[in-house]
Amino acid sequence: MKKSLSIFYFSCLLLSSFLNHAQELNAVILDSLSQNPIPFASIYLKSGTGVVSNEEGRFGLYYTEQQSPSDSLFISCMGYETFGIQLKEAQDSIFYLSPKSIALNSIILSNKAVDVQQLLNQIKDNISEKYELGYTRKKLFFRETGNSEFKTLNVKIKKSSIEEFNQVFWDSTLQKVPRKNEWFQEFAGTLYGDLDKEHQKLELYKALDLENKKTSAIFKNIEQIFDTILKENIKTTSYFKIRSGIIGGKVEADDFTNTKQDTLSKEEKDLKKKEMFLSWKKQTASNLLNNIFEKEELNFSVIKKSSKYTFKLADFTYLDDTPVYILQFEPDGNADFAGKIYVDADQMTLIRLEYKNIQNLSDFSLFGLSYALDLQELIVQFKKLSNGKYSLEYLEFTNGFKGGFDRPLVITEKNKVVKGRNKQNQLKMDLNVKSHTYQKFQLVVFETVPISQDNFEAYEENPSVLPVNLTEYDPQFWEGYSIISPNKAIKAFKVIE
Question: Does 178 lie in the same domain as 84?
Fold first, then answer.
């Protein structure tokens, strides 16, 4: 116990020392000619740690005073000259990157020399050799941005034998339901493991939920209203028959009651919440990372099913001093995506991929039910480690889907023990609900360090973090942590009472 306490106090001392002496550099990166912001640029120190600029070209980088005399700051981005400056001379400001000039004969020669299909085959063959697929320690930051909107939300009561469930009740209830809801979820931590989901552990530092609590409370209150009315009007021996057109289902009355006894102490409940939160966030990060690779193969349909796409060499550029081929692709038939592939021309390795769907990925409409996955967009970017292998630097995955329900609904309470007609109550209504949901997941890896399997197994997870819930953006919340700089929407988020 004394040893544990000593380690704890020592860790606190180190953290306190870091926070007291850490400095933050905030800046925006612009194109020197067009003055446009440059997104997804790599900002890194000579020591190897760094961040990525957001979609507005902004970044924030923490460093210690001990680093400033000796370390240098570098900014690199595809197609631009790498910018370098001593860290002690860097100030909160604007950094301009100059487009990198490319000799015309280099482009011509490259186009003549490159066989696109052969290049794609080399990319597939080089996965195990060119990427870091073993055990690593990844320092990362995650952000989810989401919003949902009801385009239509109407209920028309045809018949109700439960007095409380009348048209006035539904009209007043639906007026309370917000038509829009948005949220931001963030966490910082270190992920240990390899490509196997069973071989991953997460150390959480801090987590944030930025949301409208009033909106959440409204939905919770509505559920409580429904629950109270139902409990007052149904018998414990009853069941509900739910019918919508030709589609029906059965819900037992017990589903509306909570008979589970709460036997956990406050401390046990708190620990359980932390365990569940840690497991949830580990699964979130693992899914994003593991979906990139599958059994030492790039797990992208564009690469795995390249025969369904038409590729052409569109351009030639540089990342730092690395020559880069830019391949443009579009569907050859009924494929889903169009975009660009950036390839290290020396190592024949994919270093960046970006695409967006050109048609609905899935949809159906049947008996008044409708659903469509109408948006999917991906940006994935790799960086070269000190061992020469590539590892994930930045991933951005966006999807959007819409759904609807426009049909009659009948809910009937029946009772098995009542003699005669067992129908007790009935509610008939017409439902017309249409909604659209948008989600964006961003993951930036600031540092990737290869570790041994023994190092991985030695680390023990400690569920000690729960998210802090805020109703407006706080620029001080992530002080001392490297993150993806918030965009204007996050900075402007505030719950209006």
Answer: no
